[in-house]
Amino acid sequence: MGLECIQFCGSPGGEVVQKTFVHPELAVDEVAVKVTHSGLCGTDLHYVTTDMVLGHEAIGVVHSIGSDVSSVKVGDRVGWGYPNWTCGKCEWCLRGEDNYCPNWKIYGMADLEQGSLSSLSVRKEQWLFKIPESMSSEDAAPLMCGGSTVWTPLVNHVKPYHRVGIVGIGGLGHLAIQFAAKMGVEVVVFSATESKRDEALRLGAKEFYATKDVDDYSTLGVIKQIDRLMICTSSKVNLASFYPLLNPQAMIFPLTASDGELTVPYFATIRNGLSISGTVIATRFMQKKALEFAARNSVHVIAEKFPMTLDGVRAAMARLKEGKMRYRAVLSWE
């Protein structure tokens, strides 16, 4: 017998619709997860006009497992993010960098009948993660994508003596501040206005600078140069504005999904040895470590909560689209 569930899907007209779906029998490597919570990510807005189940920041309880599944059992609390499967055979998988597998099956491109805005989803065992007991499901859900997005450049490229600039205090930025501060680095936050100063400092920032209507960022009074710059705002940023604040060999990480062109000053980039590095989610190993670190160091998500109903999903999507979310949305069946 298949498993029946409720799903919230995109549609060609851009309106979220509710459907009923019956999952077929589990394959040997599949896990049926009863969803309890789902985060909402900016990339979910990209798919509201696609006939697919929305959502990819899921927390739930294992309902049943395929015959070959060994890493989780019925009753375990688990989460998942963007990928559902990687090949395990390509150069990137063999190097332990499975988040760059060219053959992967990910949200929005494969398994369109699976998503976190649902009552039950069937996932491959490979990309499921056990949630630490001390972590709430509300905190865990946004860490499955948003958290891993900021965690990866921090653990791969930041040393304890670096000064890390974070541009934007939103769904990504408020997590980046906490992760970076709890790693022991100096965190410098840039935001358009003064409205989030106190919150940024409470989250762990050492310095805060408001940039609206400032043409020359060298006049902001930044105490020392920046070694790593994380672009966490969803709005387009003029990277050249930050160049006077960067140390030689600084690295810039654009972290939000966006269209259009990324332009930088040519000679200044070369002369100062600056690097602009793309980065995407986390490897399976690093996703596990991100959850453990967050639980151990009390990294908490600032979230608005919505019921997992058609009205709740529509309201959360609308608030996200309007740019009013502070800072992540978490939807729950509970």
Automatic annotation (TrEMBL):
Keyword terms: Metal-binding, Oxidoreductase, Zinc
CDD domains per record: CAD1
Coiled-coil intervals: none
Cofactor(s) the protein requires to work: Zn(2+)
GO molecular function, one term: oxidoreductase activity, acting on the CH-OH group of donors, NAD or NADP as acceptor
SUPFAM superfamilies with a match to the protein in the record: GroES-like (SSF50129), NAD(P)-binding Rossmann-fold domains (SSF51735)
Location of the Enoyl reductase (ER) domain: 10-331
Assigned protein family: Belongs to the zinc-containing alcohol dehydrogenase family.
Domain of life: Eukaryota
Name of the protein in its database record: Chaperonin 10-like protein
Family matches, as Pfam families: ADH_N (PF08240), ADH_zinc_N (PF00107)
Organism: Lentinula detonsa
This protein's record includes keyword Metal-binding: yes
InterPro entries listed in its UniProt record: ADH-like_C, ADH-like_N, ADH_Zn_CS, CAD-like, D-isomer_DH_CS1, ER, GroES-like_sf, NAD(P)-bd_dom_sf
